[in-house]
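One such shown below:
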Amino acid sequence: MGRSYQHRKAQREGVKQGAYRCRKCGLVRDDAQGHHIIEYHIGGAADTHIIIPLCRACHIEYHTKNPGVRIYRL
């Protein structure tokens, strides 16, 4: 089952608040993705305060390689 409309809306707003700038590499992209600082599968809520923008490449890298690096909202 996919994420709710409210959840997707919070992700879009979190990316917008972060000015579409990837918090890992600094690239500004209008297709930046919302990443949960507190991961969704362990209870990260649909809240713009815990969602940061990552470019697609960094988001994939984060989740597939699991670098163990924490990315924080400034």
